[in-house]
Amino acid sequence: MEIRFRLQRTSLIWLACALISFCATLYLGYRFIAIQNNLLSQAQKNAHQETEDAARELNAFITMLKPIAQQVADEIGANQLSKEEIVQLIKEKKPAEITGLGVAFIPYAIDEQTKLFSPYYLEQDGKEQLINLANQYDYTAPEITWFTPVLKNGAQYIDPYYALGTKTIVAEYAVPIYAMKDGKKEAIGVVFANQSVEHLNHILNTLFLNQTGYWAMLSNKGTYLAHPQDQIIHKQITIFDLAEKLNNPDLAKAAKSILEKKEVFFEYENEITGAPSWLFSEPLEGTNWSILGIFDKSELTINTNSLRRNLIYPSLTAVLFMIFLTLFIFSLFSGDHAARWWIASAIVSFALSGQIMWVWHAAYRYPSFHEQKKYIVKNKADLYSFLKEKTTPYRYGIKQEKTTSHDTSKKATPTSGSLENKQDVLLYGYKNDRYIPTGIFINSLQFNAANQVAFSGYIWQRFTDGLHDDIPRGFTLPQSTEAKSNELSQIKEGDTVTILWEVHAVLDQLFYFDRYPFDTKALQIQIWHRYSKKNVVLVPDLDGYQLINPRALAGIDDDTHLPGWKIVATNFGYKQVNYTSNFGAYAVGPFGIYQEVDKSEVPELFYNIYVTRRLIDTLVSDLLPIAVIAVLLFVILLTSTQQKLAVIGSCASVFFATIFAQLRFRSKLPQAQIVYFESFFFLMYAMILVILIVTISHQLEFNIPFIRHRDNMISKLLYWPVLFASLAAITFGYLY
Q1: Can the peptide bond before residue 517 be classed as cis, meaning omega within 30 degrees of 0?
Q2: What is the predicted pLDDT for the residue at 587?
Q3: Residue 479, Cβ neighbours under 10 Å: how many?
Q4: Cβ atoms 267, 254 nearer than 8 A
Q5: 344 Cβ neighbours under 8 A, 6+ residues apart
Q6: What does residue 723 show for φ and ψ, rounded to 5 degrees?
């Protein structure tokens, strides 16, 4: 059959439509990249700003040492104080925000009977105590950097060193004490104030540790002074050692710039989660240290719904481009050659199938989690603000009780405005007689049924003497249908008791499967305290975890495996539940009820585990039967004219095979939901019905041009494009 080339008016229309859709595809693709880059750029700015804020905050805690030490030195120099008065002075002047404050005198300066006298008031082993450094070592020895050099050279910040008194590395400011002797001003000793790396690490972890990363500090030699992994600090590992371990020479180059007190931005896969991360560095004033902020890029952006939808849009216009381009090309040729129509059908089908797979990619890359609105714990400071707001009882609009802090014996005396709003949380103000620190660690997890999750692990709680004496020990899991707990240990440290339980439980969960197999799940473990007569609040024991970054999977054993699923994130959260019962927690007087406990007033603790389905298994087990059925139906359509009415039997066989495949599919899911992949089975039923109608109409010789033309050729050509177009529409409707 002769094929002739010709340019028609319709050809120009198809060409114009193809060009428009092509330009739209380029624009939407560029728009997605721009949105993604803008989000990353803004996240990078925020991360950099957060690092600067953290450095500024640490600097405030370091520079506050200077006025404290200077004030004590001036007071001692201006007055002849006894030993007891000096001890009392440093006790009064030492704020809780610093590690230690001390005085060291030159030999026999305090009196003729005392060679060396150095009272040092410091926080050690969780409490403040007084020691005399003169009883531990000779601080006048030449190798001691904080005494003799200060006497000779004047007030100064001392290079960080290992302090024998505190048994830790400290940042210190020291100032000479000058007194008048024989009309001359002479140095008689040194006042020193310091911050330990533990204090500085506590500041970082309390005020800045959050869901986007973690913090570290480096000495002037590149040694880690603070890091979430304690072994890195204890083994005195350097950033160069870490670069060698990660086989990352670029990190070693960046480390050299950091030690040169430069601000550094570096991208690498961090040593804890292995996730692509940003590293920012800022030098700390008054020391030779640097602070490092390591931020997980995947946690810094992100509105996943917006990104998913903007990633889907270009695929829609790309399909239109392929269709219009095909129409344009074929409109250039005349003739009724069947091969070109089959080619056109194949091209359109290929474009539509590509669009479906692109939407799958977008849905898998940027998943959507079904979960109720709740507060997610980001860091200690934010958690305390939330608890303070949500757990203060009111009666007729008036606060009924005030938060009782555990450490109220010493008031903070902040020297910087930036500290004032953070005193309560830094001084353990989140500890309250109603707050019970609680942690969880899971080592086994599995789905027992479509809406049931079983787990095994450990739960611990910390109780403080004098604070939680009237609160019974223990917890309960209100979602559980089966739960067993066995107390393993009680560990007493100071005034705190930590109780550890081994737990096995089966929990009822509300899951949505509408996007199956691209569904994601938020497994929620709700924890109550067993005491119902008082609104006790369970507080996540954030200090019990190295990181609370969702990707670090805090509370999950590395060997925990959930068959068919991938654990992608964890976090703690709170949700207020509107209960219609007081659970019998009320008091009765002569005239009736006068007091009751409303649990709806208090947010409840949840531990959340986010999982995504592994697609390979489900694509093979669920999609393959549908693909086989679709091919069989196409073969039946191709041979329908030869089979004649026998096609009814063929369609019946495929129909029953489809029913059995759907029943097998339904056995894995709740019966009340029609999910994404199940809609494919309904489409197969529709295709079976259409094939029967078309074939019977052809056999009965109804005068329908659509069916009669070329022995039902049009139906055969449209089979795959219509099938894939229907699948694409269903996919867009479910996964958009």
Answers
A1: yes
A2: 61
A3: 20
A4: no
A5: 326, 327, 330, 717
A6: -60, -50
Percentage of residues in the chain having pLDDT higher than 90: 26
pLDDT value, residue 163: 83
- Averaged pLDDT of the chain: 82
pLDDT the model gives residue 387: 81
Paired with 595 in beta bridges are 587
Per-residue tokens: 86: 């000096």
- Left (φ > 0), alpha (ψ -120 to 50) or beta: where does 351 sit? alpha
CB 458 within 8 A of CB 489: no
Is the predicted pLDDT of residue 193 greater than 90, yes or no? yes
**Partners of 260 in the beta sheet?**
none
Residue 513 CB burial class (10 angstroms; 0-12, 13-18, ≥19): buried
| Short-list 289, 268, 271, 290, CA closest to 279 | 268
586 phi/psi in degrees, rounded to 5: -150, 160
β-strands 119-124, 213-218 pairing: unpaired
C-alpha dist (Å) from residue 320 to 10, 325, 345, 348: 16, 8, 14, 9
Among the listed residues 205, 199, 202, 204, the one whose alpha carbon sits nearest the alpha carbon of residue 99? 199
The 10s digit of each residue's pLDDT in 143-191 is 888 999 999 999 998 888 888 777 788 888 999 999 887 778 888 999 9
Task: Decide: 217 and 160 in contact? Cβ < 8 Å.
Answer: no
Q: What is the DSSP letter of 620?
A: I
Please count the other Cβ atoms lying within 10 Å of the Cβ belonging to residue 569. Answer: 21
| Token code pair at residue 601 | 């007033």
Which pLDDT score is estimated for 352?
92
DSSP-assigned states of every residue in 245-314: HTT-HHHHHHHHHHHTT---EEEEE-TTT--EEEEEEEEPTTSS-EEEEEEEGGGT---HHHHHHHHHHH
Q: How far is CA 468 from CA 218, 435, 534, in A?
A: 39, 9, 12
Which of the four pLDDT bands, split at 50, 70 and 90, describes residue 405? very low
**DSSP strand E in 409-495: where?**
435-449, 452-464, 475-476, 480-493
What Å distances lie between residue 584 and 381, 383, 418, 548, 619, CA to CA? 35, 30, 46, 37, 51
pLDDT above 60 (res 397): no
Asked whether the beta carbons of 430 and 539 are under 8 A apart, the reply is yes
Residue located via tokens 């949840």: 606
What pLDDT shows up at residue 304? 77
Is residue 502 classed as helix, strand or coil in its secondary structure?
A: strand
Residue of 5 and 297 predicted with greater confidence: 297
Strands 475-476 and 156-163: unpaired
Kind plus residue range of the DSSP H or E element containing 499: strand 496-508
Contacts of residue 365, Cβ cutoff 8 Å, sequence gap at least 6 = 308, 311
* DSSP category for residue 465: T
Hey, CA dihedral for 7, 9, 11, 13, is it positive or negative? positive
Q: For 240-279, how does the pLDDT look when each residue is reduced to its tens digit (9 = 90+)?
A: 998 888 888 889 999 999 998 888 898 888 877 777 888 9
State the distance between the two ends of the chain, measured CA to CA, in whole angstroms: 46
Give the other-Cβ count within 10 Å of 713's Cβ: 14
Q: Mean pLDDT over residues 339-346, rounded?
A: 83
